[in-house]
Design goal:
α3 packs antiparallel against α4. This protein has three domains: 89 residues, no CATH class; 70 residues, SH3 type barrels (Roll); 144 residues, L,D-transpeptidase catalytic domain-like. Helices cover 23% and strands 32% of the residues. An eight-stranded mixed barrel has the order 15-16-17-22-20-19-18-23. A five-stranded antiparallel sheet has the order 1-7-6-3-2.
Length: 400
């Protein structure tokens, strides 16, 4: 009897050891599908992508949202849209909590959603209102240009708050009344139309003129001075227009479809910008913040709050990075929702990332990293890959 029991126990233990690796490697249904299929963001994972799905539609796992009246409302922070109904398929895009998309069909616990939005039916979409001076508009899309904006149920502050939005988010425009804009509460990214190159160029120049004026006032008059605040509003408004036009440019679309064509990213300490180049031409310029040390010099030791300078490259990328005990994707996470680590040494602690303190952009404010508006970090994340060269200049604008 004892021998029989021992044989049974031995076989049971063997079976557990055999199955355990497969159990531990399986993905829980409670995990959010928000990890890129590859760190480079370019290669497929081995399962052929569906040609039809890759064009105007994509697949989202069923537990990532709620279907209501034929539309999927995303309920998780950041969610991958894949080319087929499974985790092995290529990541086509990422959507965020609150975004809504028409459902084409449901299969094997996944929703096939339409990613193309050509028009917005007000009667079919939840909507809200915000003041015109809180956003920039190009065509039928607006971009929020303030740090935190209340979206209301009607065109006045007496109406209830429906939601809040952070800087850089886009929405389709439904109408306008008494200095207020009505928007559909879905992402406006898919409605951004193609931009003429000259319009992008002029908007870029206007943004840089306003931004340079702002960054010069910050160290002399301080962030809270009336002149600085006026310059901040001007820079944000100009940048909103430029951002929307840049998103619709042929160059940005080309780089997004193939990050390998990016020559380099140049972080310019002299004018607080990060510039993406492809084939020697400027594709996109982003405002940034860098090391808080007043001298702005090259990093010399841990804790000196300086940003290193020189020629580096992107060595890792992460969606919703965790910071100490702050979970990834949290509103108070100082890294925002994207991390692009650099080969700058210092224990791998230097990178480009979003921020929970957007008011710091345009100043020396970080512990050594390069901060960006979180929406900008998300866009840059889609334009670069592991291995993309990154050059950080000195405060004089030189590479060394």
């Amino acid at each position: 009897m004892r021998k029989s029991f021992m044989r049974t126990a031995s076989w049971l233990m063997f079976a557990i050891m055999l199955v355990l690796p497969f159990i531990s490697s399986a993905q829980s249904i409670f995990e959010v599908d928000n990890t890129p299929a590859t760190t480079s963001g370019n290669a497929r994972t081995g399962v052929a992508a569906s040609t039809a799905a890759a064009s105007e539609s994509g697949w989202v796992r069923g537990d990532m949202g709620i279907v209501d009246k034929g539309q999927l409302r995303i309920t998780q922070g950041t969610v991958n849209v894949r080319s087929g109904p499974g985790l092995g398929y290529e990541v086509l895009d990422q959507v965020r909590r609150g975004d809504r998309f028409p459902v084409i069909k449901t299969q094997s616990g996944w929703h096939n959603i339409s990613m193309a939005v050509t028009a917005v039916d007000e009667s079919q979409q939840p909507s809200a209102w915000l003041r015109n001076d809180m956003c920039a508009q190009v065509g039928k899309v607006i971009m929020v240009i303030l740090d935190k904006v209340n979206l209301r149920s009607g065109p006045s502050t007496s109406h209830s708050i429906v939601s809040t939005s952070t800087i850089g988010k886009t929405f389709p425009v439904l109408g306008e009344k008494d200095g207020w804009t009505q928007i559909a509460l879905i992402s406006g990214e898919k409605m951004i139309e193609r931009s003429e190159p000259k319009l992008v160029e002029y908007a870029q120049q206007d943004f840089m003129i306003a931004y340079n004026a702002y960054t010069k006032l910050v160290p002399t008059k301080g962030l809270n001075h009336a002149d600085t605040q006026a310059a901040l509003r001007e820079f944000r408004a100009k940048y909103g227009i430029y951002s929307l036009l840049a998103k619709g440019s042929d160059e940005v679309k080309k780089v997004r479809s193939n990050p390998a064509v990016v020559d380099k990213v140049v972080i310019n300490k002299a004018n607080f910008t990060s510039t993406v180049y492809s084939n020697g031409k400027v594709v996109r310029i982003y405002p940034i913040a860098y090391g808080a040390n007043p001298d702005g010099a090259n990093k010399q030791k841990v804790g000196d709050k300086r940003t290193p300078q020189g020629a580096f490259s992107i060595v890792n990328k992460a969606v919703n990075p965790q910071y100490k005990n702050i979970p990834g994707g949290a509103a108070n996470n100082p890294l925002g929702t994207r991390w692009m680590g650099l080969s700058a040494g210092w224990g791998g602690s230097i990178g480009m990332h979003g921020t929970s303190a957007p008011s710091s952009i345009g100043s020396k404010a970080s512990a050594g990293c390069v901060r960006m508006f979180t929406a900008d970090a998300e866009e840059l994340f889609s334009l670069v890959k592991v291995g993309t060269p990154v050059i950080i200049t000195s405060v004089t604008g030189k590479y060394n």
